[in-house]
Amino acid sequence: MTLKIQNICCIGAGYVGGPTMAVIAKNCPNIKVTVVDNNKERIDAWNSSDLSKLPIYEPGLDEIVKRCRGRNLSFSTQINENIASADMVFISVNTPTKTKGLGAGKASDLKWVEACARQVAINAKKHTIVVEKSTLPVRTAEVIKTILEDAQLSSATPYKNSTFEVLSNPEFLSEGSAIQDLEEPDRVLIGGDNEEAIEALSQIYKQWVPSKKILKTNIWSSELAKLTANAFLAQRISSINAIGALCEATGADVREVSRAIGSDSRIGSKFLDSGPGFGGSCFKKDILNLVYLSRYFGLPEVADFWEGVVFLNTWHQHRISELIVKKLFGTLSGKKIVVLGFAFKANTNDTRESAAIQICKDLLQEGALLFIHDPKVDSKQIEVDLERPQMNKSIKAGDLPSQSGEWKTISNLYDGLPNSDAILILTEWLEYSNINWEKVAKTMRRPAWVFDARSIINPSQVLQSGLKLWRVGDGSQVH
Ligand code: NAD
Ligand code: UDX
Known about the structure:
- By secondary structure, this protein is of the alpha/beta class.
- It is about 40% helix and about 15% strand.
- It has 16 helices and 14 strands.
- Strand 5 (about 125-130), helix 6 (about 140-150) and strand 6 (about 165-170) form a beta-alpha-beta unit.
- The protein is elongated and about 75 Å long.
- The structure holds nicotinamide-adenine-dinucleotide and uridine-5'-diphosphate-xylopyranose.
- Nicotinamide-adenine-dinucleotide binds near residues 171 and 173.
């Protein structure tokens, strides 16, 4: 017999919990879906009547929220009550890298996951399927199970007849295309050892995902598959960025190399774009977690192999900052650089681990004046990321610089251009590929550079307008 799920509670209203539950609510009108979070500000934003104020920007998300909110989708801070009435609880909270204690800098910090498991243990009133949606180290399900089951033995637990099953159901969505990824996933992965629980979760996805795309594995394989998928994807980016550096040194062009290798069906053409280095909340943290697990299980060679992917990424970001300094005559003091893009990729307002953070910090260290433009990122977020306030005085290129550089945001990219020395493209927003270079060139201070770390501009237009150009992985200037 299949358990019928009528009430879902998702703990964590973030980049994963919000969009995932919105898509479940849209495709399963008979299931009541409640997303809970202890961050009231975030929940208020999800409940905002102005859909442009949703806490997360994802193309198509506002439409679904508009359609489902108040029907079978709601957002709440009442965590205990919603756990109590749920048949299925998704844990979709953050699992960042630990900053202190055992495993600091590598292992995942599971304190939020553990807190959720304890809260479920105390508040669940009936048979509850607990689904790990967060990305977790292998064998975390064991920890969750232990917390849930042992709580039943405690005198502090009010409902003694609750029973639990734990499943792993990692999320593979990419930010910026989350809704499309959720609506048409390559696969849905469900790990577990209880057939009835697995079937109950499959039934939900079967409302819109073809059965053949629903993969069932044991729980440990499912947890490890998520870390492995991210590690493989990130590895491709470090590989192509490493080859890009070699292209710049030898006269080859990384775009041509990518096309040549990508047409080998064994390699495939996706995820071969050289850029400023991978960002996002997942790749670095998940690889470091894999590194930690490998060392923990006595496999230092495996750990070193994967750690190299992160090492290369950091090196590549510094390489870009250094080459900008070198091309601008070895000093950025008082030089004005217009930075286009701060998000870690286009179509998102997320800046977590964005390459822009490290590169801008490096340039500020050299005394640059940065005028930062991003169509979706809030200046308050940039302030947090750069760990310094934006300048409030009016300042022009050539003014005496402060020791540590200055930055401010601009809402129209053309506003930042007069007398600038360089433009640096860090995020591949569509509008940056349609810049009128002739118009731009007239306002910049010469010699003026365009540094295209995303390879999205038309090189001949830039060169014809009299600007100097560096493109990631382009060795065409080598003679
Ligand atoms: P997020 O930081 O955007 O959201 C997590 C939310 O959980 C926050 O709003 C936080 O307030 C809330 N929270 C934390 N502890 C809580 C508690 N005890 N009770 C109630 N609410 C609590 O994180 P995210 O990007 O959505 O990621 C969530 C998980 O999904 C992580 O494990 C991540 O690795 C994984 N993941 C993320 C992505 C992605 O693209 N962002 C993709 C796949 C998987
Ligand atoms: C990633 C995984 O793709 C997704 O499956 C997982 O669920 C979460 O982590 P996300 O971080 O949202 O998704 O974005 P992704 O598209 O993977 O890009 C990650 C970073 O790699 C970005 O900074 C992006 O600009 C960069 N990238 C991607 C490249 O530099 N080149 C590429 O060819 C692809």
